[in-house]
Write a structure and sequence with these properties.
- The protein is mostly beta strands and 156 residues long.
- The protein has one domain: Jelly Rolls, CATH 2.60.120.
- The chain contains one helix and ten strands, in the order αββββββββββ.
- A hairpin with a 6-residue loop joins strand 1 and strand 2.
- The chain is globular, with a radius of gyration of 18 Å.
- Strands 1, 2, 3, 4, 5, 6, 9 and 10 form an eight-stranded antiparallel sheet that branches. A two-stranded antiparallel ribbon has the order 7-8.
Length: 156
């Protein structure tokens, strides 16, 4: 019986240690302009992978804030993928700087393209009407607690 109990506790600890992190979702409004806040805590291995509630908007801005404990790597990667697997941030979240707590990095979602004149332009933001998968990696690992931060999504 003791052996079984020890095995069960060990299994539960292993599942918890390699979980996908967690997110608390808060919405200011379901009508434009929307502000959706995804407060995240990474798993002990430094990752987050969770699905949001349905988002119906054209994304106009996304901000990244660090929490406490803050990410420890110089940068970390954030993607917001739709159900087809397309990153609605168009790769712009691939190197979010680890700022001081409370400081923000911001991007304007959309597709970047280079015109024939060599000018880089940004198309309109992505319009979504579905759940998005928030994935974060590279925030640093911890033996005691996951790293924390916030992703704020603005939409029209």
């Amino acid at each position: 019986m003791k052996c079984f109990l020890f095995s069960l506790i060990t299994l539960l600890f292993a599942v918890t240690s390699f979980s996908a992190g967690s997110v608390s979702e808060t919405r200011v409004s379901d009508v434009p302009p929307q502000r959706i806040t995804l407060a995240w805590t990474s798993a002990l291995n430094g990752t987050v992978a969770v699905t949001s509630q349905v988002i119906r908007a054209t994304l106009t801005r996304v901000e990244f804030y660090n929490g406490s404990p803050a990410p420890t790597n110089a940068t970390y990667a954030v993607t917001l993928k739709n159900l087809a697997g397309i990153d609605v941030l168009a790769g712009q979240g691939s190197a979010v700087a680890t700022n001081l707590i409370g400081s923000a990095s911001a991007i304007v979602p959309g597709s970047l393209y280079v015109s024939t004149a060599g000018t880089t332009n940004l198309t309109e933001g992505f319009t979504v009407n579905e759940k998005l998968v928030l994935a974060i990696s590279g925030v640093g690992t911890s033996a005691a607690a996951g790293k924390q931060g916030v992703v704020v999504i603005y939409g029209e």
